[in-house]
Design goal:
The chain is an alpha/beta fold and about 375 residues long. It has 13 helices and 18 strands. Strand 14 and strand 15 form a beta hairpin. GO terms for molecular function: S-methyl-5-thioribose-1-phosphate isomerase activity.
């Protein structure tokens, strides 16, 4: 995608052997990049959410492994890097997937060959992510076009999304936003309702910023408005991303997604989930029981950062002193509330049979590993 007209990815290697990322904690008020010079830098970037979004977390972890191998390519260092990076975020399965991929690539190699192989594999994971997400956009475009034609190709196509599942959550294109960009570029008059997505406001700060950069019409709304809009016929479809999807189609996404799915179900609004195949956890079947839900610091709820009229970036506390804050980062939407899953291989029902039909190779490999 483009930043001020310049094609940009969210992560890229530098000529000096370091890795550059966009510091997403500084958006939307400042576009700043940060250099990762060590595996520990990568771990901190994931843990502190300088990078976020399941695919980008995986890509950053892969480059974290490459940075580790540059410094020490021993067996002990390889395992230590894996373990350190694995511990950064518990919910997004792409982290586990990318680290397992790097281990499979590097373990059989002699230490002298690991650094070069790690850099090559990390770059390939990033390139694959871009191709996967663009394919998701192409398949999602068909759903958008059908919804537009159902409206008689008049007015605007109103889409509601939650959190940020755009190019900032991936290496490029995004998952849930990829079809939006494709539809906009194809001339469909798409308009996006952007949930603010408290407490970190990824919708208001990241999704809105992305859509601005691409010129897509949108409106930022508070998280509890979506149901009202659906009741009044102001949402034609919902589309969100996912950090982990079970083999049976349960979806774990940013907190608040479940409530949007319930509202969509009650009002007959299609609720789509866009996901790359590495986000499917083939080893689990019950999202409510088996997916670990990250609980983050209460300060994310009680402290809000913004820009003053004078242009200063300040943090202010919005809760009473002494009031504790709970901060669950994700919730699980049962498959029965998901209209369809949009993947790089096509669109399928949110069922075991639907996923296995698109990904028979992955389903068979998972079954063989049990």
């Amino acid at each position: 995608m483009k930043v001020n007209g310049t094609p940009t990815r969210t992560i890229w290697p530098n000529a000096d052997g370091s890795v550059e990322i966009i510091d997403q904690t500084r958006l939307p008020h400042a576009f700043v990049t940060t250099t990762l010079r060590s595996m520990e830098d990568a771990a901190v970037a994931i843990k502190d959410m300088l990078v976020r979004g399941a695919p980008l977390i995986g890509a950053t972890a892969a480059y974290g492994m490459a940075l580790a191998m540059r410094d020490d390519a021993s067996d002990a260092a390889l395992q230590a890097a894996h373990d350190r990076l694995y511990a950064t975020r518990p919910t997004a399965v792409n982290l586990r997937w990318a680290l397992a991929d790097m281990l499979r690539t590097l373990r059989p190699l002699p230490a002298a060959e690991r650094a070069a192989a790690a850099w090559a594999r990390a770059a390939a994971i990033c390139d694959d992510d871009v191709a996967i997400n663009e394919a998701i956009g192409d398949h999602g475009l068909g759903l958008f076009r059908a919804a537009w034609e159902k409206k008689g190709a008049t007015g605007r196509l109103n889409v509601l999304t939650h959190c940020n599942a755009g190019w900032l959550a991936t290496v490029d294109w995004g998952t849930a936003l990829a079809p939006i960009y494709k539809a906009h570029d194809a001339g469909i008059p798409v308009h996006v309702w952007v949930d603010e997505t408290r407490p970190r406001s990824q919708g208001a700060s990241l999704t809105a910023w992305e859509l601005n950069q691409h010129g897509v019409p949108h409106t930022v709304i508070v998280d509890n408005v979506g149901g009202h809009l659906m009741q009044h016929g102001m949402v034609d479809l919902c589309i969100v991303g996912t950090d982990r999807t079970t083999a049976t189609g349960d979806v774990c996404n940013k907190i608040g997604t479940y409530l949007k799915a319930l509202a969509a179900h009650d009002n007959g609004v299609p609720f789509y989930v866009a996901l790359p195949s590495p986000t499917v956890d083939w080893s689990i079947s019950d999202g409510l029981k088996e997916i670990p839900i990250e609980e983050r610091a209460g300060e994310e709820v009680s402290v809000v950062t913004g820009r003053t009229a004078a242009g200063d970036i300040v943090a202010v506390t919005v809760t009473p002193e002494g009031s504790p804050c709970g901060n669950w980062g994700f919730d699980v939407t049962p498959a029965r509330y998901v209209t369809a899953l949009v993947t790089e291989r096509g669109v399928c029902p949110a069922t075991r049979e639907g996923l296995a039909g698109l990904f028979p190779d992955l389903a068979a490999a998972a079954a063989a590993a049990e």
